[in-house]
Amino acid sequence: MDPLSGDYLAVNLANWNSRVPHHVLGYQLDSFRSDPSYLSDVVRFDLPRLGDISGLGVVHLQCHIGTDTLSLARLGAGSVSGLDFSQPALDAAAALAADCGSQIQLVCSNVYEAVDAFEGQHFDLVFTGIGALCWLPDVARWAKVVASLLRPGGRLFIREGHPMLWSLSDPRDDELLVVKYPYFERPEGMAFSDDETYVEQHGPVTSPDMRIWNHGIGEIISAVTGAGMVVTAFEEHRSVPWNALGTAMIELPNGEFQLRDEPDRLAASYTLQARRG
Prior knowledge:
The structure is a single chain. This protein has about 280 residues and is of the alpha/beta class. The protein has one domain: 3-Layer(aba) Sandwich (Rossmann fold). It has helices at about 5-25, 30-35, 40-50, 65-75, 85-100, 115, 140-150, 165, 215-225, and strands spanning about 55-60, 80-85, 105-110, 125-130, 150-160, 190-195, 210, 230-235, 250, 255-260, 270-275. The strands form three sheets. A seven-stranded mixed β-sheet has the order 3-2-1-4-5-11-8, sandwiched between helices. The chain has a two-stranded antiparallel ribbon with strand order 6-7. Helix 4 links the parallel strand 1 and strand 2 (about 80-85). Helix 7 (about 140-150) packs parallel to helix 9 (about 215-225). The protein is globular, with a radius of gyration of 18 Å. The relative contact order is 0.16.
């Protein structure tokens, strides 16, 4: 499969469309509706690094059903937009925003076409959350899109699963950590099929096939700097907001998961910030 042929998009779009009903039930959306100050666990983790975003024009790329997007709006951003390639996900995001009285612009587009989809809009902050980059075959192309969306001086904020974590095998009964998958970006990516998603669900995902890509830390940083941005902060974390390794991980009070034994062995996620010159 040529990763840029568009075929992967159809496979992954069907997969994400089929996850939406499960995520609408599993993302604790009623917590957002009942508490106007409620934030997603992901954005709550990000708060010390995000800083004050009051009044900023923010775009959340690959926003899915909009829980992180809504959380950014609740932090006082001047305007918030979300982009995703799944219209059912955006429909769920729009319903949640309406229920919560929040004005969020939602745009349906492949992330590589975001510049055209936003018709010349520029933003102070581009936010990309956990589990986004692995669906993109070319991280350098993604970084150019980000730079084109930012105003001069605008900031990229990304927290993502660490490529070392993505390279490990699925959870093992003996809890041994084994490198199984490529650490570096490969044009063809990796094909998987899984009828389970990462929240509690009732019934299988109906479109289980997917194609994903890993991107090494050096490749990501090189992509960002190659697109004309300057890296201003980079931090690796021992935790990630889902249980990636079964019984080898424990849940922390903040909803994050880390290795039960010697968590210093694994960088599970990272935060990268950069500014457009």
